[in-house]
Amino acid sequence: MTSRPDLSLAQRKRQLVADELTEAALQLLALRGFDGVTVDEIVAAAGVSKRTFFRYFASKEDVVVQFLADMGTDMCAELASRPAGEPPSTALLRTVLVPLTTCGAHSEKALPLVRLILRTPALHARFLERQAQWREGLSTELARRLGLDPAADLYPHLAAGMALTAFDTVLWRWSESEAGDDPAELAEQAFAVIGTSLDTVD
Fold it and tell me: What Pfam families does the record tag this protein with (predicted)?
C-alpha cells in the first residue's frame, strides 16, 4: 500500500504505521507460520507498542484479512476501469491479473504468504469469506458494464464466480509449485479454458 497525496498529514502517518505493522506481521507469519508468531513479536519487529497494534488490528488474523480486503478492492477497481467494449473474458483476466502480477513480482514474500493463507484453516476460511464479497462486487460491476439486471440475470454472478474459481485454482497451483511458476502465466492458461464460456452472454 502506497501513500496517497490526497490524505492529510495525520492520515498519512496512520497509514505509514499500519503499513509497517502489516509488513512486519506478514513477513513473520509467512516465515514461521500462524501459530508460531505472537503479537509481541510483531510489534517488536515493527518498532511500535502493543497498544498501537491493537489500535489498528483486533488480532494478528485481522492483519491478513485486511491484506485480502485490499486485494479485492484492487480487483473491483480494475474491472471498473476496463474499456466498455472489452470482452468479459479479457476484462476479468485483467482484473485477476492485478494481484497475481504483484504476487509474481514479489514472489519471495508473496508465495510464503499465499501458502500460509491456503494452509491455515482459520485464514483460509476468512479468505473464502472475502471471495464471496469479491464475487458480489465483481458481479455488480459486470452487470453494469453489460446492461444486465443483477437481480434477474444469472450471468454476472456465474461469470464472477468462474473468474474467482480460476483465481483460486491459480493460487493453489502456484502454492504447490516447487519451481515457483509465474501466477500470471497460470492465469492466462486458466482463462484460455473458460474464456469462451465467459464471452457467451445471452
Answer: TetR_C_14 (PF17754), TetR_N (PF00440)
